[in-house]
Fold this sequence. Notes:
The chain has about 450 residues and is α+β, with helices and mostly antiparallel strands. The chain contains 15 helices and 17 strands. The chain has helices at about 30-35, 65-75, 80-90, 100-105, 110-115, 120-125, 140-155, 165-175, 220-225, 235-240, 340-360, 365-370, 375-385, 400-405, 425-440, and strands spanning about 5, 10, 20, 40-45, 50-55, 55-60, 155-160, 185-195, 195-200, 205-210, 215, 250-255, 265-270, 290-295, 315-325, 370-375, 415. α3 packs across α7 (about 140-155). It is globular. It starts with a strand and ends with a helix.
Amino acid sequence: MQSYRRGKYAFDTGMHYVGGLAKGQPLYNAFKELNLLHLPWVHLDANGFDRVTIAGQTFRLAEGYENFINTLAGEFPSEREALHRYVEILKKSESRDAAITKQLMETNAWDWLNSNFTDKLLLNVISGASMKLELRKESLPLFTFLHCNNSYIQSSWRLRGDGNQIAHSLINDIQEMGGEVVCNAEVEELIEQDGQITEAVCKDGRRIKGDTFISDVHPAVTLSWVKDSQKIRHIYRRRMSMLENTFGMFTVSLVLKPHTISYFNHNDYIYREANVWDFYEKKGPVGGEMLSCRVPENALLSADGEILDKELYAEQIDILTPMLWNEVSQWKDTTVGRRSEAYKAMKQQRAKECIALAETVIPGLSDAIDKVYTSTPLTYRDYTLTPNGSAFGIRKDSGNPLMTQLSVHTPVPNLLLTGQSPILHGLEGVTMTAMETANNL
């Protein structure tokens, strides 16, 4: 959720839009309790919050279950019943019934979609808003796929301004309740005594004592801090360290020249071919990406988050595309600001490919660009301590759900986990996980 600044511009790293924020939907009550509904949320285009372009054809993903079905059935009339079945299982994924969750976790998403949809182009369209999860044919659970799509169909929102507003709002409330947020104090060890964590030791020498410790850092990194433990067995450490991680992201952040590109109140997902599930494994130029347009700071909003300006120009656009670790692993022993010219040349070439693909839906984009900033999985690794710069944490596996769907508990009773790796990633996922962690207290 954090943002970074370059000059007068703030850029988001991961949080580009959220789903299910309207009253009665999954995130509403949680965000109300967390005092986050007061932020300037902007309601995305209900008739196409996401646009999926495949080989030059564009399809709209519309808000609301019936609207979603009718919009896609207009393009794929023979698949109306399949779309109804898809919506029914989307609704089913919201169940708190453990048996239903288990069933969906053990069902392979690729297999289910292929058994439900006859038209393979529609299968690709349904999967097209995929930069918010890792599509992987052999392992992605249906549970993860459904949760990463369902709430957005209910309603989709982005912030006017950067994602730091969420962090700042939470920090202010923590401080008002007597809590303290300590920055620039990287933890390097968790001390265990008599089977309990007693303190965290920071690199700057600070030692922070406590009764309960909660880590949202990757589980394998968290366990590496507990160097001497009566509770954590070698087999548990080995299991955590051997879990595979999802791929990382290459991001291109664009600053545009004034009054050149109109603001678009939706996200664009663009693919060269109908290979949404494995395009990132193919060699050659970038084959798929997401475009997210930042809401201009001067945009006027209604009380319910609708944009009132009739003519609004974009100031910033983010482009995201998957990047595998083996594409950057040759520079893994380097740090931010100290990488080679070859690395910089690779980033520049990848950015050109991303912009060229984006220009197929935004004509004239190249001429409208003022500044370009890029980042790779190495950047994310260095700033978030996430192994391999993983975008979504530990890879869930429908063939082995018990190993990859982690509990928030650890073998040490007063050390709990939260964040994107244990249960679900994404803003809804980490909120659900945080509530689960809190419930355990």
